[in-house]
Design goal:
By secondary structure, this protein is of the alpha+beta class. It has a single domain, classed as Alpha-Beta Complex (Nucleoside Triphosphate Pyrophosphohydrolase), CATH 3.90.79.10. 26% of the residues lie in helices and 28% in strands. The protein is built from five helices and eight strands, in the order H-H-E-E-E-E-H-E-E-E-E-H-H. Strands 1, 2, 3, 4, 5, 6, 7 and 8 form an eight-stranded mixed beta sheet that branches. The longest helix has 14 residues, at 5-18. It is globular and about 40 Å long.
Length: 183
């Protein structure tokens, strides 16, 4: 069964139960979700959902990709597909697609998102996309595996970064990737 707006609302509510101080930051996406509108579709330019993965290896390194479209290091992630059945599974799919890591070697650190970010995406006329907003819902995972072949159409590279360096590059969401900090 495909991901529904209710599934997305449920994930955001669970996240806000864990991080209530972020309610103001997520007020607009919660308002949009309450109105409905198939936010899984990347054709919904009021807002659509993306899924991200913070993958930790050995409790000391986080896997980041060099994002082709944005030109910066980020956690693996991307748009939902009609075949995705959960946000968690979508995050694993994106992780595997972009980094070639074997999904069987990836274990969720939590079934609740560890970060949710709502942000403006600039227009990309070459793709027929006006300015719009993403609601990026991210999950933490652990592994002992290494990456495989990267998806060169979306990323230009991938590497394991020490936690402090990853946090400097990507931001505070990295701190929530470490299972000991998730609780």
């Amino acid at each position: 069964m495909a991901i529904s707006d209710a599934d997305i609302s449920s994930a955001v509510s669970a996240y806000l139960g864990r991080y209530p101080d972020e309610a103001v930051l997520l007020a607009e996406p919660m308002r949009l979700l309450s109105e409905g509108g198939d936010f899984t579709s990347r054709e919904n330019f009021r807002m659509h959902v993306t899924a991200g993965a913070l993958l930790v290896r050995g409790g000391a390194e986080v896997l980041l990709v060099d994002h082709r479209a944005y030109g910066i290091p980020l956690q693996p992630g991307g748009h939902l597909e009609p075949t995705d059945t959960s946000l968690l599974d979508a995050a694993v799919r994106e992780l595997a697609e972009e980094t070639g890591i074997d999904p069987a070697q990836v274990v969720p650190a939590s079934r609740t998102p560890v970060y949710i970010e709502y942000g403006r995406v600039p227009a990309r006329p070459q793709k027929g996309e006006p300015e719009h907003h993403h609601l990026d819902i991210g999950y933490a995972f652990v592994t002992d595996a290494d990456m495989g072949l990267i998806q060169e159409s979306e990323v230009t590279g991938a590497a394991w970064y020490p936690l402090a360096e990853a946090e400097r590059l990507v931001g505070h969401r990295i701190a929530r990737a470490v299972p000991a900090r998730i609780g």
